[in-house]
Every structure is written in structure tokens, then in C-alpha cells.
Amino acid sequence: MSVDIAVVGATGLVGEALVELLDEGDFPAADIHLLASGESAGKSMPFRGRNLRVRDLAAFDFAKVKLAFFATTAEVVAEYAPRALASGCSVIDLSGSGEGSLVLPVLNAESAELAQLPVLLRAPAAAAAEVGEVLVALASCVELRSLSLTACLSASQLGREGVQELARQTAELLNARPLEPRLVDRQYAFNMLGQVGSVDACGHSAIERRIHDELVELFPGLSGQLQVSCLLAPVFFGDALSLSLRTAEPVDLAAVRQALDAADGIELIEDDYPTVIGDALGQDEIKVGRVRSGFLDPCELNLWIASDNVRKGFGLNAVKLGALLIKHYL
Amino acid sequence: MSVDIAVVGATGLVGEALVELLDEGDFPAADIHLLASGESAGKSMPFRGRNLRVRDLAAFDFAKVKLAFFATTAEVVAEYAPRALASGCSVIDLSGSGEGSLVLPVLNAESAELAQLPVLLRAPAAAAAEVGEVLVALASCVELRSLSLTACLSASQLGREGVQELARQTAELLNARPLEPRLVDRQYAFNMLGQVGSVDACGHSAIERRIHDELVELFPGLSGQLQVSCLLAPVFFGDALSLSLRTAEPVDLAAVRQALDAADGIELIEDDYPTVIGDALGQDEIKVGRVRSGFLDPCELNLWIASDNVRKGFGLNAVKLGALLIKHYL
What Gene3D superfamilies does the record point to (chains A, B) (predicted)? Predict the structure, then answer.
């Protein structure tokens, strides 16, 4: 038994990863509708041995499906999610637009399991999901007091255009051509950017606020105890996260390692440190390394995380959430 | 009046910056001896309109000079600094090898001013000096409780060979040639490395320990309250530092901005964020931006720093220190 589903924003980086994940696994989808706006409609994408045509979102009748993933901007969600819900189609919103319950499957799957259909659920930002999974794994051995996160995000944070921007700027510099920043307003190649996009009146960027707010929503004890800074590294894909936790009691590093090692969806890498390129890309686990306490503070726990933000951080969590919801329909 | 000086390790990235700084300014050097070991001896470098030959360190008589900068490894300092001191030549050690007093001129210049000559003084690591200068500037308006530093270091942290490694790896990847990591044991181009070199039994890298220990030595109140993580970004030059401070009282952001703006050696960049490439390279100021408090915690202060690690972080501080010492001889 299975139901028909839709992927809205199928041609974007995250949408494409969703389609791949739905294609690979045993996801209970009978038929899948790939949707996009404007220019992207009309393309075709492979799915279960066929080439599926991407259809125009504006013309789609959501009554045809029971579940739609929205891997789009918040504006598209605001316009089309109400239509989907009105047609009886549940929505999993990856945009961070703020409606519906936020669900991280390893933490609060019951929000999906108990939902009255149709429902709108939100999937966390990739980095929030990655940090969240690690915090769930550590819950048994660490009483968390505060958390400081410096997230080195990659060009993929800006979507396909971000990846193209970095590639083009890099080629311009290496070929001694004049640099022409377009999507990013300055040299991004071989440069660390201390800010992702514009900031609000308090100085926080939208992605910093999203990660902060989502982690506090998932872990209310972090309220007032969570520091988030997002940087943009000249790297194409992946999340590279530097975490420092303060705990109520001195950290038992052996217990931390054991808890990380035992967690589904996490791979502990010891005696070396993981990187996105070497370890995380295309993988279904968050790679965690550099487990160490502070120089002098035994209640400090430092971690280094490398993860495939698109596939693992966004895609896999959303797909798991979708599978939980579909159970209701069957 | 002026004295004769030597630069040991003159052909390295930091040594070269020292020679440039000594050449530019009104440093009271009569004659300068450029020294290096092995293959680098015999090269020539421009200084005050002449081409100076780099001499072999092993054959140098330190009695010829009153001051020597050591921009070398700790091993070279261990071998040659005692010879210099025995010949009446003071030493400024940039290697972090741990002997002598640590001096950050804006903080504790008296250690140089009161020194009995000849003396061995240590200059801090670039990132420690950069953070230290910012902390000195903030001392008037912030009572610091704890500090978390994520330092995105650049290829220059590994010296000239590091810069060459990143350039070669980048070219290999862009030209679809097989990647051949040499100095770094994995793909560094377009990849964030979560660790700089090997780590000790506690999991800290040497540069993390150096930055931590030097900052605690300069600011003893940070003992047990300082978290340091060093990453290696695929960037050629510069330090990009993400700082989060916790303070005793709610942060007065206007006072913080005013204090940073008023500090010599610091440029506050408002309404935008600084980067190494666009703002810091070749500059004599630390560029500070993204001054903001926490999302919910008014006692949290976040800062973003871009600095030319070689020229500003290492070079200028060492040269200032040298000028303080030379006053004694005149």
C-alpha cells in the first residue's frame, strides 16, 4: 500500500536530493509528482527507471496527492501550502517559514504520529537537524547547560546559484580574469565570509535566527543558552560545524564516545577528524569527531561535525517525516 | 641613533613580512642581517633600496647585533637563541616555544620596557595577538566572564608550503587532474579541515594550545573560561575569527562599538562585515564587525574579526616589541 506524493521545488538542490532519496529507498509512494515554478517546469528528472517531467506548480491540483514536500522559499509555501491543505494534502515544509509543528524524527516523531490529517509539519534547517541529532544522542550522558555553535556553511546554502557563483569566481581568479561577483556581493572564492546574506536589526542573519529558534523549539532548555554564528566557507557542499557545550557535570568522554557511536544516523570518527569531502558527502550519517573537553574546564565538551547538509541534514529527515505521516493514510 | 639587528627565518612568510615592515617604517635599525638555514641562505631580498643577501644562520656571529627576531620553528630558537643571548643580543621569539616573557605591546609593554638586556621575549601567535588587542580595547566597557573562539585559519598558518599546497590542490581539481595531497594529508581545496596538524593526548592541536595558553597568560582571568577551536579554511591568507564573549553585565553595544572605534590598531566596520580579502590583507588594523549580542542573552557579545595574520598578527606586534627593546640600547 502506498500513496501519491508531490515534491515542490524538485529541481533545486534540496528538491533533487529528496527525489533521489525517494527513488533509492522503500518509501511508500505510489506515484510522484515533480513540481516547480517558472523556468524549471518542463525539465525532466529520473525516478524509478523513468524520466519524469517536472510540472508547473501553479497548474497542479493537490487533490491528486496525500503528501507534498515543499523544498522552496517561504513565499512559495505561503502561497501553495494552504491550497494543498485545503485539498486534503499534508505538507512537509523545509523552508523554515514558521507555520506548523517542527519535527526532528529522532526527537519528537510523535508530533507526526499523532497528527490530524491533513497537517503541515516543518523540517528543521540542515544544521539545526544535525546539531539536534547529536544532542539527542548525548542526552543520556550529558546534562547540557549551554551551547555555542559556529557553523561553516557552504555555497549550497545559497542553492544551486551559490554553487555556480563559487565555481565561477574560482575560475575567474585562477585564470586571472576580472572577478565579477553576482550572487554574493564580494569575493567569495578563497575568502571566508563572516555573514550569510543580510542581517536583521539585532545583527543576526536569517539562517542564524532559524537555527537558533528551531533548536530552542526542539530543546527548550537551550533558551537563553544558545549562541549561533554562521559563516560561509568557500566550499561547495556540506556543513562543517564547530560545537562547544557546557555541561552541568564534568564530561565523561568515554560515555560521550559510546553514546555517539551507538546512535543511528551518526558515525563517530576517532583517531582522525572527519571532513565533508572525505567522509560526509553522499552519506546518510552525521560524522562527528574531535571529541574533547576544555583545556582547563572539565564541564566543556567540544565536537566537530561534518555532514552532507543537502542529503542528510535536509533530505533524510524530511523523508523520514514523510514516511511517518504516510502511515496514517494506509 | 640606531642598532644593528637580525631577522632569523627571513625567507619564510612571517620573516618576509618582518623585513617589509622594518623597511617601511622608521624602525631604528642601522644595519640588518637576514638569516636563514640551509637552502634559503644565498637568496636575496630587497631592503631600503638594496638587495640584501640572506646569510647562513649557522655561521652568523650574534655579537654583531643587539636584537634578533626569530621567525622560525621552536627547534631553531632552542638551538640559536641561547647563542644570541650569550653574545649580548636580545631575542624576540615568534615561534611560541615557551621561553621568556610573553608581550603584547598594547597590554604589557612594560615587560619590554623594564627588561634587563639581553632578554628573550615572546610574541604571541597571530590569533592570540588579534583577540588580545580586541580584549584590551573592550576592557573599559566589558567585564569578561568567558570567551569562546572559533578561529578559521588559512593556508599561511602552514607557511609558504601551505599556500603552495592549497594552490596546487585547487589547480589539480579544477583541471580534473588526480589530487595529490602532500603537505596536508587529504583534500584541502574546497574543504574545511576541522583540525590543524596533529593533536595531543587531550585532543587539542598545537595551535589551539598555543592560542589558549598565551591568552590565559596575557589575561589570567580567562583561566578555565576560554574555549578555543582552530579550523583550517581553504583560503590562502588571513585569520577569520568568530568570537563569543560572556560578560558579567548586559552588554552596552554602543559602548562596545565606541571602544573598538577608538582603539589604535583596530578598525570597526559597521553596516557591513569585514573579510580578509576585501578589508584586512596588507592592512595594519584588525577589522572587527558583526558586533551583536545574543538572541536572548544580553550578557553575550559576538564579534567577527578579519586580520592579516602574517603582517598584523605576527609582524607588527613583533616590530613594536623590537622598537620598545631598542630604546634601551640607545
Answer: Dihydrodipicolinate Reductase, domain 2, NAD(P)-binding Rossmann-like Domain
- Interface contact B293-A186, CB threshold 8 A: no
Question: pLDDT for B140-178, tens place per residue?
Answer: 999 999 999 999 999 999 999 999 999 999 999 988 999
The answer for B 301-320 residues in CB contact with A (under 8 A) is 302, 304, 306
Burial (Cβ within 10 Å: 0-12, 13-18, ≥19) of residue B61? exposed
Does residue A178 sit at the B interface (CB-CB below 8 Å)?
no
- What pLDDT score was predicted for residue A99? 85
Confidence of residue B98 (pLDDT cuts 50, 70, 90): confident
Q: How far is CA A69 from the centre of its chain?
A: 13
Q: What band does B273 get if pLDDT is binned at 50, 70 and 90?
A: very high
Residue B290 near residue A194 (C-beta atoms within 8 A): yes
Mean pLDDT of all residues in A202-226: 98
List CB contacts (< 8 A) between B199 and chain A: 290, 292
Question: A162 CB near a chain B CB, below 8 Å?
Answer: no
Cα dihedral sign, B14-B18-B24-B25: positive
Are the beta carbons of B171 and A170 separated by less than 8 Å?
A: no
As beta bridge partners, residue A246 has: A146, A300
Tell whether the model's pLDDT for residue B15 goes beyond 90. yes
Interface membership of A192 toward B (CB under 8 Å):
yes
Domains and CATH numbers, chain A: 3-124+314-329 (3.40.50.720), 128-308 (3.30.360.10)
Residue appearing with cell numbers 644570541 = B84
Checking if the pLDDT of A3 tops 80, the result is: yes
Q: Do A294 and B234 touch (CB under 8 A)?
A: no
Which of A194, A212, A289 is facing B304, going by the closest CB pair? Answer: A194
Contact across the interface for B275 and A191, Cβ inside 8 Å:
yes
Q: Does residue A300 belong to the interface with chain B, where contact is any CB pair within 8 Å?
A: yes
pLDDT the model gives residue A178: 93
Each residue's pLDDT tens digit, B218-254: 999 999 999 999 999 999 999 999 999 999 999 999 9
User: Chain B window 203-242: which residues touch A at a Cβ cutoff of 8 Å?
Assistant: 203-204, 209, 212-213, 216, 223-229, 231, 233-236, 238, 240, 242
Q: Identify all chain B residues contacting A202, using CB atoms and an 8 Å cutoff.
A: 292-293, 295
ipTM over 0.85: yes
CB contact under 8 A, A203 and B297: no
